[in-house]
Amino acid sequence: MRFTNRASAGRLLARELLKLDLRAPVVYALPRGGLPVAFEVAEALKAPLDIVLVRKIGVPWQRELAAGAIADDAQNLVFNKDVIAEAGMQRRQVEEAAKVEIREIERRRALYLAGRSPVEVKGREAIIVDDGIATGATVEAAIMAVRRREPSRVIVATPVAPPDTVAELKALANDVVCLATPEPFFAISAHYDDFRQLTDQDVVDVLRQAHSAEGGGYGGST
Questions:
Q1: How does residue 215 score in pLDDT terms, banded at 50, 70 and 90?
Q2: Is position 20 within any domain?
Q3: Of 99, 130, 153, 157, which residue has the fewest beta carbons closer than 10 angstroms?
Q4: Three-state secondary structure along the chain?
Q5: Range 46-55 average pLDDT
Q6: Which of 66, 217, 54, 45 is nearest to 127 (CA)?
Q7: This prediction's pTM
Q8: What is the total count of domains within the chain?
Q9: CATH label of the domain that carries residue 120
Q10: Do residues 30 and 139 lie in contact, with contact meaning Cβ atoms separated by under 8 Å?
């Protein structure tokens, strides 16, 4: 299954989410790539759009291979034990790298959110959206961060992910909606015609558009 671009994938994902019994959902994007997907989902569900700031902690010589991930702060640090063992890394190396990523999270928070308050999700359904999932470490960290806000239900939604990752996430979330589960799985980008890298300005622009569409009701996560 291939997607024209992230927006197209988001509209397809929204169709599946509309089949669920959702009462008052809040849509959480994982910037940067997850935001255009989540924007389409939020529009279709008529739900507020928020973000959860997550950073992958890559293996030093292969940054795209996640040894772990962190969301918001050190309380939400996930270790990818299989990758750590295969790479011959120590947990302390991941913890040290996490400190660097926390600084990047704070930079993005200041730039993307510009002081906006978070959307209140307590007692509501939280839908965590990314443009694709590989190992699942970043989404696991996002789930941890969002659960601290006491939603009634956590749903992970993504256009594409390997079947073993989907199975692992089902043990952590209340539901997982995934359009394509290819096996073998090579890369998220292989399932998109247009998978250009997004910039900070792209994120700011999409959030501004969401804020405008909601009449100023957008809230950013803390």
A1: low
A2: yes
A3: 99
A4: CCECCHHHHHHHHHHHHCCCCCCCCEEEECCCCHHHHHHHHHHHHCCCEEECCEEEEEECCEEEEEEEEEECCHHHEEECHHHHHHHCCCHHHHHHHHHHHHHHHHHHHHHHHCCCCCCCCCCCEEEEECCCCCCCHHHHHHHHHHHCCCCCEEEEEEEECCHHHHHHHHCCCCEEEEEECCCCCCCHHHHECCCCCCCHHHHHHHHHHHHHHCCCCCCCCC
A5: 95
A6: 45
A7: 0.90
A8: 1
A9: 3.40.50.2020
A10: yes
What is the band of 214 on the pLDDT scale with cuts at 50, 70, 90? Answer: low
Tokens representing 134 are: 């590989």
- Report pLDDT digits (tens) over 65-110: 788 899 987 788 998 888 888 888 888 888 998 999 999 999 999 9
Flag whether 126 is in a domain.
yes
Domain with 38, as residue range(s), is: 6-212
**Residue in this structure with the two tokens 């979330």, named with its chain if needed:** 173
Q: How far, in Å, CA of 168 to CA of 71, rounded?
A: 18
In a domain? residue 220: no
Looking up tokens 């997982």, which residue turns up? 176
